[in-house]
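---------- Forwarded message ----------

FYI, see the 2'-deoxycytidine 5'-triphosphate deaminase record below. Original note from H. follows.
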Amino acid sequence: MMTDGILPDREIAALFENDAIVAPIERDADQIQPASLDLRLGPKAYRVRASFLPGQGRTVAEQLARFQLHEFSLAEGAVLETGCVYVVPLLETLELPEDVRATANPKSSTGRLDIFTRVLADGGQEFDKLPAGYQGPLYLEISPRTFPILLRQGSRLSQIRFRTGEPLLSEAELSDLHAHERLTTALEANISGGGIALSIDLAGGADGLVGYRGKRHTGVVDVDRRGAYPLADFWEPIHRGKTGELVLDPDEFYILVSKEAVHVPPAFAAEMTPFDPLVGEFRVHYAGFFDPGFGHSAAGGTGSRAVLEVRSHDVPFILEDGQIVGRLVYERMQALPDRLYGLDLKSNYQAQGLKLSKHFV
């Protein structure tokens, strides 16, 4: 019987070996992360009229038959346009054990490109959540928001975590962990609501740079190419203002950074909590998974700041330096992973500050 916790890398590999995860082609050598699995796009995609959930007792395929506008191949690559909604069957199919459930989230690079993604499953009444014992296919809803993107079969935009029991730390447990491991560089950790508060840095460094705003009407970004695109063609730098404020324009996309560096010890994993209307009319951080070892000294980190993908909704919103914008919740790992984030994994964002996705130079 499994202990409560998030499954580490070797247990995810065991799910493959036991046919709890099945794919028509062999898995990629680097597909398994310390506490998650990258999901791969299949060979075809569908443009759909609008986002949807299948609902209880219905399959995604049945709903696609109702809502699709056209089907196209990803075998040779295809461009997905901004403002459109697509659904792509994933290569991975699940036959989870009765005590294993899962949640999905965009990968860090996906969020930093402002690609809105959510996993759908048959009978699903929520996005990105798979009940214990789920058996069936997976699909990815994809909606590029700022840049048109080029992708293909095998591209990896989303990731999935598997868990058993109730591994989420209580507020008291989180306070105790911080006392022993120092999870944030904040002078006084704000721990409430089950998470550690993160605030926004609008002071910047010596150069005054505090963030970037995505440009409109740019060229296409190939999601599988690293260091291929000039930063200036896609991003407008934002520098420190005299008042320490930043006005978020509605429906513009910003890359900002937390004031605190954070640390995820090897026996734990963390996640940025989703949009909380109590902190303002904006969404922070599409890609919420933080792996064991993020910012940890044993994995080459000295604390890493959280890069935040920020989008205002409906009305302009003023952010001020030091304003709380989200919370990081921590969960126990079922066991230590074999490899930590940043250690022998070519991790892109270890010991990071303000940093765009791996696609830009």
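H. also flagged this: The radius of gyration is 20 Å.
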